[in-house]
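Schema walk-through. Below, the input block comes first and the output block second. Nothing else is stored per chain. Lengths vary across the set, and this one has 181 residues.
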Amino acid sequence: DGKFRILTLSRTHPIKRISYLLNKLKEMESYSIFDIEYFHIGGGIELESLKKFSNELNFKKFTVNFLGKITDFEKKEFFKLNPVDVFLNVSSSEGTSLSLVEALSYSIPVIVTSVGGNRSIGEYCNTSIDKEFSSKDLYIFFEKIITRLDYRKKLKGKSFNYWKKYHDQNIIDSQIINLFG
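--- output ---
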């Protein structure tokens, strides 16, 4: 349908830098050759101020959707029913984000700031971005995902393989049994 869908899933807290991302998307809007539909799932202390900030940015070409806090069932339904082209984690500091791991399990390409636990995922998937990324830095990833099917398939595979190798509970259980059994 000509839309490129991005998703963030986190509490709305300054450390998650959703306002930073919104600023970069606004800059990108002036030169992007494709439309972006951005979804954020999660509530928190900044949710209302982020909605207001998004309205003040006055996006013309891109769509911004704040879905707020939703149930696990609703989240799974969202992943099933909405084609997500890329999952972003642009935190200034991060352990290992469970929402990021969940996105990996759905074979969604991820782009992450090179901080904390994100760093190993970004290095494995070759999708690390500097913490102070520019809109152009992010756009380069978006453009490659949109225009190069082979690149998109590669990122989807890397996402799923990372999840399977490090987070698939069935594999972890069998490794524990082999280790202690």
